[in-house]
TrEMBL record:
<keyword id="KW-0808">Transferase</keyword>
<keyword id="KW-0547">Nucleotide-binding</keyword>
<dbReference type="InterPro" id="IPR020568">
    <property type="entry name" value="Ribosomal_Su5_D2-typ_SF"/>
</dbReference>
<dbReference type="Pfam" id="PF00288">
    <property type="entry name" value="GHMP_kinases_N"/>
</dbReference>
<protein>
    <submittedName>
        <fullName>Mevalonate kinase</fullName>
    </submittedName>
</protein>
<dbReference type="GO" id="GO:0016301">
    <property type="term" value="F:kinase activity"/>
</dbReference>
<keyword id="KW-0067">ATP-binding</keyword>
<dbReference type="InterPro" id="IPR001174">
    <property type="entry name" value="HddA/FKP"/>
</dbReference>
<dbReference type="GO" id="GO:0005524">
    <property type="term" value="F:ATP binding"/>
</dbReference>
<dbReference type="InterPro" id="IPR014721">
    <property type="entry name" value="Ribsml_uS5_D2-typ_fold_subgr"/>
</dbReference>
<dbReference type="InterPro" id="IPR036554">
    <property type="entry name" value="GHMP_kinase_C_sf"/>
</dbReference>
<keyword id="KW-0418">Kinase</keyword>
<feature type="domain" description="GHMP kinase N-terminal">
    <location>
        <begin position="83"/>
        <end position="147"/>
    </location>
</feature>
<dbReference type="InterPro" id="IPR006204">
    <property type="entry name" value="GHMP_kinase_N_dom"/>
</dbReference>
Amino acid sequence: MKGPLFYSKILLFGEYGIIKDSKGLSIPYNFYNGALKKSENLSEQALKSNESLKRFAEYIAHIDEDIVQFDIERLQHDVNSGMYFDSSIPQGYGVGSSGALVAAIYDKYAFNKITVLENLTREKLLKLKTIFSSMESFFHGKSSGLDPLNSYLSIPILINSKDNIEATGIPAQQSEGKGAVFLIDSGVVGETAPMVSLFMEKMKQEGFRNMLKTQFIKHTDACVEDFLNGDVKSLIKNTKQLSKIVLNNFKPMIPIQFHELWKKGIETNEYFLKLCGSGGGGYILGFTEDIDKAKKSLSDYKLEVVYNF
């Protein structure tokens, strides 16, 4: 048995903001993927995945049947016969490792599932998001359901607000373009749940809430618009502002060894860094108008280019 592949994703814009109704833009990242497989001789890693799947199967058996129904018997039978999730997606890196797993389980075991081939109305997208949110909460405590949605559909998703999402097209990549979106490996694994609770704690402060509304969400929304419209000049300007706002207000979410590097990018204009997912480790997302300059400036780090403009 080998299931279809589900890919990782990158939330380009909207981290934390989408909890409070900012815009967001999420794109599939085909560099990493995962698939359900079965084996009688499980490696140590496969065994770990199998154990986790057992707990996950137990969890989704108790999801409200009005939201989604699964063939739990078949799922449990497959898990007991050595099913595991074979994935190259790094965990705790903000690129949707649990999202791909959730998408794979829904695809294989959900009754009356919404398929990718249907006309994906807003209503269907929101229904999928609700289903995935309740499934992925097993991993994060609270999930928006966006990662699995992106992985399941494998198309860019535009979040206008909590109740308004749509599949979208993004400008074609410019293979000759000097501008780029890239990833830096922080070398530290990040955990979503503690970062989200830290954010919720900060939300109790009026000053932080105010900053979120008047600065963070304002520039996040502008970045999404600029990116979709292919307005590179404005995108770089707004990303710089966003990078500053994050450095000033989300410091605990940035691994300490990156604080100076973050500042250097803003001061030199050679690159601008932002959180990839909830932060705390994993990947850091970077934007630059000149990828060669950025590579030189960040020569101590391995850069993975994810999009050229």
